[in-house]
Amino acid sequence: MLNIAAFTFKYDHIEDRILMVGNLNNDQQRVDFWLTRKLVLRLLSAASGLIEKTSSDIAGAPVQLKSDLAQFHHESARQGLQVESESEDLKAESASLLCRLDVSHQAGRYRILFFVNDESPLAASILTYDELHQMLHLIHRGSLALEWGADSQLFAPEASSSSVTLQ
């Protein structure tokens, strides 16, 4: 199984997919994945629950503040994001269609397994809390650029079942 230590993303309007390249400019073996709209939107919708379950700050917050606190954590991690601008001519090299992502949490780290079939994972990556938020930010940014219908805020508050009208 390959270890992915660095991620590069390209939002491909022609393919209507996100190209995620692992290990583009480091000494490890490069691996390319296509992320589909369906997979990305499922990942983004599950992100809130994952962050809530694995962050003691958010889990302990009052219900009405959880999404705001998660968005604050997300924005704080995004501020520390170090991105290098890649050339626009980044091309996929033997890209595989990513069919599944498994994310587990242990000892403050997130292990992500990348599957191209239902058998064993092709690659894995270990991320910190901030790195997971940064990765989610870049994927979310791609879903917005490709106009896939994602909310503009990743951790937007859920619509309340009760409504208040001011007159």
Describe this structure in words.
Helix 1 (37-54) runs antiparallel to helix 4 and helix 3 packs across helix 4 (129-145). The chain starts with a strand and ends in a 22-residue tail after the last helix. It is built from four helices and eight strands. The protein has one domain (2-145). The protein has helices spanning 37-54, 56-59, 66-79, 129-145, and strands at residues 2-3, 7-12, 17-22, 31-35, 96-97, 100-106, 109-115, 123-127. The model is unreliable at 159-165 (pLDDT under 50). Strands 1-8-7-6 form a four-stranded mixed β-sheet. A four-stranded mixed β-sheet has the order 2-3-4-5. The longest helix has 18 residues, at 37-54. With 167 residues, the chain is of the alpha/beta class.
- Count of DSSP H/I helices: 4
Strand content: 15-25%
Number of domains: 1
Measured between the Cα atoms of the first and last residue, the distance is 61 Å
- Portion of residues within helices: 25-40%
**Over the alpha carbons, how many angstroms does the gyration radius reach?**
17 Å
